[in-house]
Amino acid sequence: MNFELSGKLIEIYEVQEITERFRKREFVLEVEELRGAMNFTEQIKFQTIQDRTALLDSFNVGDLVKVSFGIKGRRWEKEGRVNYFNNLEAWRLEAAAAAGPPDLQAPDDGLMPPPDEQDDLPF
């Protein structure tokens, strides 16, 4: 499953060498969502692994980005106790344009003449 989410980078962590053959880098994205009349702000942590840890090198805290990611989950068991872990694994980051005011101009679908054109309708 692949997903996309846009928001503002609020944390970028250093690369962690977990083992000799595995490294990861985490970052946090702040996402705002309007639900009805309420505005909700979420801070969502992602990770990049292996060569993709370099994806964050060209970004800074405060940048607006679009993250493409997958959801990874695994089971972990120790001494009879079972836990489940989820990770949001980013595989692409790109700069996102700042959200401006919505474009209130109607789309040109060819059904309405431009407002400055004269028509010959009797009303």
Task: Provide an overview of this structure.
By secondary structure, the protein is mainly β. The protein has one domain (2-95): OB fold (Dihydrolipoamide Acetyltransferase, E2P), CATH 2.40.50.140. Helices cover 0% and strands 58% of the residues. The chain contains no helices and six strands. A hairpin with a 2-residue loop joins strand 5 (64-78) and strand 6. The model is unreliable at 100-109 and 111-115 (pLDDT under 50).
Secondary-structure blueprint of this entry?
Blueprint: E1 2-12, E2 16-19, E3 22-35, E4 38-49, E5 64-78, E6 81-95
Supply database-style keywords:
about 120 residues; mainly beta; OB fold (Dihydrolipoamide Acetyltransferase, E2P); about 60% strand
CATH class equals: Mainly Beta
Give, in order, the helices and strands.
EEEEEE
Major sheet size, sense and barrel closure? 6 strands, antiparallel
**If helices are DSSP runs of H or I spanning 4 or more residues, what is the number of helices?**
0
- Structural class comes to mainly beta
What is the count of distinct domains?
A: 1
Rg over C-alpha atoms, rounded to the nearest angstrom: 23 Å
Q: Based on CA inertia axes, which overall geometry fits?
A: globular
CATH topology: OB fold (Dihydrolipoamide Acetyltransferase, E2P)
At CATH level 2, the architecture is Beta Barrel
Task: Give a short summary of the structure.
This protein is 0% helix and 58% strand.
